[in-house]
Amino acid sequence: MTIEVRPAAAFADVRTVLGPKSPGATVCWCLSHRIPAKLDRTLRGPARGEYVAELCRTSPPPGVLAYDGDEPVGWAAVAPRAATSYAHIDDLPVWSLWCIRVRPGHRGQGLSHALIGGAVDFARAQGAPAIEAYPLDGGGGRVDTTMAYAGIRANFERAGFVHAADTTSVLAGRPRVLMRLDLR
Questions:
Q1: Where are the alpha helices (DSSP H) in 82-152?
Q2: How far is Cα 175 from Cα 159, in angstroms, rounded to an integer?
Q3: Whose CA is closest to 162, among 133, 128, 140, 141?
Q4: pLDDT for 115-138, tens place per residue?
Q5: How far apart are CA 130 and CA 92, in angstroms?
Q6: H/E/C letters for each residue in 2-16?
C-alpha cells in the first residue's frame, strides 16, 4: 500500500469519503466548524454537498485526501482558524485541523498519521505559521471509532504537536485538548 496525501480539490473524491449513502441525508460533510451555526442549520440534504463542491473549487481547497493508488481512502479538514468557529487562544493566524476520517476497510493501517502529516504539509505550503488540532485525550483507553474524527492526542504528539490549552469540550466522554505545532 502506497499512500499519497493531496489537496482535496476533486469533489467526487471528497464525496466518496464524506458523502452520505442517501443524497437527501443531512449529515456533517465536515461543515460544522467551518461555517456559521445559522448557515449550518439551514443547509440540508444535497445543499450541503453543493456547498462542499464549491469549497473544492476554491483556493485553497477545504482539506486533504489520502489516496491508496487512485482510490480516496481518507480525509482531513484543514483551513485557516479564522475561517472556523474555533476559539482563539492568541492572535497568531494559525490553521486548524479538526476532522480526520478514514473509510471503513482502510482503518488500522496508519492512515490517520499520514493525514495529519499531509495536513501539516498543506498548511505549511499555504504559509501557516502554526497548526492547531482539537483531539480527544484518550487517557490511554480505547476511543469509539465514530467519535475519533477529532483525532487522538497521542497521534498528534507523535507528529510533534504539543499541548497548548485545555478546553471545556468533551466528546464521547473524553476531554478535548488544544494541540499546536509551530511551523516557523
A1: 111-125
A2: 20
A3: 133
A4: 999 999 999 999 999 999 999 997
A5: 8
A6: CEEEEECCCHHHHHH
